[in-house]
Amino acid sequence: MDTLAPVTLPPAPVPAPAGGLFVSFEGGDGSGKSTQSRLLGEWLTAQGRTVVLTREPGGTELGQVLRREVLHGGHLDPRTEALLYAADRAHHVASLVRPALAAGSVVVTDRYLDSSVAYQGSGRDLGADEVERLSLWATGGLLPALTVLLDLDPAAGLERMRAREGGPDRLESAGEEFHRRTRAAFLDRAAADPGRWLVLDAARPVAEIAADVRTRVADLLGLDAAAPGVRP
Ligand code: TYD
Fold first, then answer.
1. Ligand 1 centroid distance, CA of 225 (Å)
2. What is the CATH number of domain 21-221?
3. Tens-digit pLDDT profile for the chain (232 aa)?
4. At residue 165, what are phi and psi to the nearest 5 degrees?
């Protein structure tokens, strides 16, 4: 027979286990995700919460190996690239994110599934729905309770990247049109699901952005956003 077996749909997205909170930061390169993740982590720690700060790709030992290959190895075709990010995510969720959430921690990740949908789905043209299905399958349907989009003009992000050591990686050097598509994809996804997303202008001062993030997270955790913590 020539016909392919029917495609199995991924499981419906499931919420994070009770007690923990799963937060992701998304945005273009140079938008300040790691700074904001760190500031949120410091403030939550000052509130007595256990925080796990992590990132994709590369949040685990295996992930480090995958990160090196996918960002600094030789040419990869887009499907291979998408599968490597999905493999990194599957292992990250199974070995680190889910256990931490189950233990009641706040998990803050610098990039998650929405990066694949934007970069591989729209940037590389693989199709947003297909790439999302792949990631939902890889993670057993785990979505963050909150995704903060640090939105920035790609030209401004590139300017910030140039000031950094090490030079651009493979994705960073993918060209202006690619980065315009990924930015539009992030904004479209955010507009379609405002309950999960918080969109912030990443060109604003760091302290102002951090305060807006705190307000939303405090609301989710029943904390006082004005409570003292480490100030940016
Ligand atoms: P990131 O760790 O944010 O880069 P850096 O630490 O250098 O600021 O992300 C690395 C690159 O990987 C970034 O260009 C976006 C890309 N990426 C994808 O294309 N798909 C994905 O699923 C993820 C998680 C990242």
1. 30
2. 3.40.50.300
3. 344 455 554 555 554 445 799 999 999 988 999 999 999 999 999 999 999 999 999 999 999 999 999 999 999 999 999 999 999 999 999 999 999 999 999 999 999 999 999 999 998 889 999 999 999 999 999 999 999 999 999 888 877 877 776 666 656 666 788 899 999 999 999 999 999 999 999 999 999 999 999 999 999 999 999 998 854 4
4. -80, 155
> pTM, whole model, 2 decimals?
0.90
Q: Whose CA is nearest to atom 12 of ligand 1?
A: 171
Domain locations in the chain?
21-221
Residues with beta carbon inside 6 Å of ligand 1? 29, 55-57, 71, 85, 111, 115-116, 119-120, 169, 171-172
- Centre of ligand 1 to C-alpha 185, Å, is 15
User: φ and ψ at 146, to 5 degrees?
Assistant: -140, 135
How close is the Cα of 9 to the center of ligand 1, in Å? 27
Q: Considering only CA atoms, which of 24, 36, 25, 34 is closest in space to residue 205?
A: 36
Tokens of 232: 């940016």
| Rounded-to-integer distance, Cα 232 and Cα 229, Å | 9
Q: What is the whole-number distance in angstroms between the Cα of residue 99 and the centre of ligand 1?
A: 23
Residue nearest to atom 21 of ligand 1 (CA): 116
